[in-house]
Amino acid sequence: MNVPDDRARRKALRLELVGRRQAMDAATLAPLHAALETRVEALLTQLRPASVGFTWPYRGEFDALPLMRRWLATDPARWAALPVVGEKGQPMTFRRWAPDTVMATDRYGIPYPADGEAVVPALLLIPCNGFDGRGYRLGYGAGHYDRTLAALVPTPVAVGVAIEDGRLDDLQPQPHDLPMDWIVTEADTFTSHR
C-alpha cells in the first residue's frame, strides 16, 4: 500500500539508484553493459520484432547504439526509432533513427531525430533506474513511458533494461504504473506477462 509520502520515497529511491549508477566507473560498468547487450540481443532474436524503439544513453544507462547499428545492418527491412519528448504531461512520440539520421537535442540534452513522422515500434527498450520482480520500473518520475505505453496503438512489447543494482523487492507501484512485459539485466531475463 502506498503511504502519503510515496512521492518523496520514490524520489529518494530514484536519486539513490541513479547516484550509485553514475558513481560506477567505466571499468565497473563496461562488463555489466556488455552482458546486458548480450541478453538484449538474445531477447531480440527470440522475439523477432520488425522494429525497435530505444533511448539515447543518459546518466550511465545502457548504451543500445552499438547493438541497434548491428541489428539494423543484418536486415534491411528492420527499422529503429528514438523517442521525442513533447509538451509536459503528453506522451512521447517516436521517429525513425538510422546511424546517419540528423539529430536535434531536447530540453534534457538528449539527442532525437530532428525530422520525421511519428511511428509506433513493435518493441521498446526502456531504461529502468529500479525494477521489481513483477516488472514494475522506476524511471525519472515524469511518467513519460507510462503515458506513452498507454497511448501507443498497437501497444509495443515493453522491455525494461537495467542493472541488477536496481533490483528492488517491491517497488510499490502507483495505479498509473504499467509493468514491463520483460526485464533484462546483466544477470537475468524474465517476463512479467501483463
Automatic annotation (TrEMBL):
Organism: Methyloversatilis universalis (strain ATCC BAA-1314 / DSM 25237 / JCM 13912 / CCUG 52030 / FAM5)
The protein's required cofactors: Mg(2+)
EC number: 6.3.3.2
GO molecular function, one term: metal ion binding
Signal sequence region: none
Binding of substrate, residues: 61
Catalyzed reaction equations: (6S)-5-formyl-5,6,7,8-tetrahydrofolate + ATP = (6R)-5,10-methenyltetrahydrofolate + ADP + phosphate
Keyword Nucleotide-binding listed: yes
Keywords from the named record: ATP-binding, Ligase, Magnesium, Metal-binding, Nucleotide-binding
Positions with a binding annotation for ATP: 10-14, 137-145
GO biological process, one term: folic acid-containing compound biosynthetic process
The keyword Metal-binding appears for this protein: yes
Recorded family membership: Belongs to the 5-formyltetrahydrofolate cyclo-ligase family.
Enzyme's top EC category: ligase
Protein name, UniProt field: 5-formyltetrahydrofolate cyclo-ligase
Matches recorded under Pfam families: 5-FTHF_cyc-lig
InterPro entries per record: FTHF_cligase (IPR002698), FTHF_cligase-like_sf (IPR024185), NagB/RpiA_transferase-like (IPR037171)
